[in-house]
Amino acid sequence: MLKAVKVAAKKINSNIKVYGADSDEACIGRYFVDQFWKIPKLDKLTIDYLLQYCLENNVTSIIPSRDGELLFFAKHKNVLNKNGIFVMIATKKAVGRCLDKYLFSKFGTKHGYHVVQTETSFIDLVGDNQFYVVKERYGAGSKNIGLKLTKDQSIKYAEKLITPIFQPYIEGEEITADVYVTRNGEVKGIVTRKRVLVVNGESQISTTFRDQRLARLCSKVVTDLELYGHIVLQVIVDKNGHFHIIECNSRFGGASTLSIAAGLDSFYWFILEVSGNDLHKYPFVRSNKEMMLVRYPEDLIL
After folding, report:
1. pLDDT block averages, 10 residues each, the chain of length 302
2. Nearest to 29 by CA among 53, 47, 3
3. Residue-level pLDDT at 197
4. What is the DSSP letter of 20?
5. Is the dihedral of CA 265, 250, 227, 80 positive or negative?
6. Are 148 and 130 in contact (CB under 8 A)?
7. Do 291 and 34 meet the contact criterion of CB atoms below 8 Å apart?
8. Which residues contact 140 (CB under 8 A, 6 or more apart)?
9. What b/e readout covers 72-99, taking b as 16+ CB neighbours within 10 angstroms?
10. Is 265 exposed, middle or buried (0-12, 13-18, 19+ CB in 10 A)?
11. Distance (Å, rounded) from C-alpha 291 to C-alpha 178?
12. Reported pTM
């Protein structure tokens, strides 16, 4: 992600610096930015402290990178904007219903989408399901997830979680859609990819593919959710070709760099927008060839 941000910045101005901020001074990411800033942990970080640093260092754009900080930046987005600092984040309300998988399910169902039923109590699930999924209501969907569990296993597994939710287990292929939504709420582009190999909840091997029907669906969903910036949708395609929306992440994903390579130039578009450029002059040109992403550890010699 950091490499992709730097590439996007250099396309606009070779003098643009990319700052990285983390409360952990030993984080790996510090070696891939132009300037590292050790910040307080999020519960200690004040908007005044953040604003002062940004103004003193001429920081004009902020790109959140993890679920835990999304609400913080959404909450303070307007204050930062008024000071010439723009955040790639939607409103607090829009971000909140994506972070809360129960609310997301209810919102999607209300708008007529085939969202996987999500309940806070097992007895509220409908249908004659043989297996189930149990996971945390908030945060990353892959964290502490119980897959393909029986009824008894589901109830027992839920005891290990803080705020468990229950879903029917749907057999099928898991698909990811990367979407960029402009500041005006327009869908700039969509790239769909298959998760060939998933390790610890993230795509280790991914491949792009085309499906106009899925692209239209994802475009409608992110528009109804009133999102902004780079969005990631998780969908299951069952044996009958029906789409079942699992969840939506209002941030850049672990394997979203594949979509950038395929033409979804999210960071470039974001920086262009906050610089006052008209994005209609910069069309989405999707790669003619499909691509594969393989994530692997790499040595960096300094």
Report:
1. 95 95 95 96 96 96 95 97 97 96 96 96 89 90 83 95 96 95 96 87 88 97 97 96 96 93 98 94 96 92 91
2. 3
3. 86
4. E
5. negative
6. no
7. no
8. 67, 201
9. bbbebbeebeeeebbbbbbebebbbbbb
10. buried
11. 14
12. 0.94
DSSP letters of 162-212? Answer: SSEEEEE---SEEEEEEEEE-TTS-EEEEEEEEEEEEETTEEEEEEEE--H
Q: How far apart (Å, rounded) are the C-alpha atoms in residues 105 and 118?
A: 6
Distance CA 3, CA 69 (A): 21
pLDDT at position 141? 56
What does the chain come to in residues? 302
- Please say whether the beta carbons of 201 and 145 come within 8 A: yes
Identify the residue whose tokens are 């219903």.
97
Is-contact 192 216, C-beta < 8 A? no
The pairing of beta strand 132-136 with beta strand 164-168:
antiparallel
pLDDT of residue 198: 80
Q: How many CA atoms lie within 13 A of 215 on its CB side?
A: 14
What is residue 140's predicted lDDT score, i.e. its pLDDT? 67
Task: Identify whether the C-beta of residue 263 lies closer than 8 Å to the C-beta of residue 191.
Answer: yes
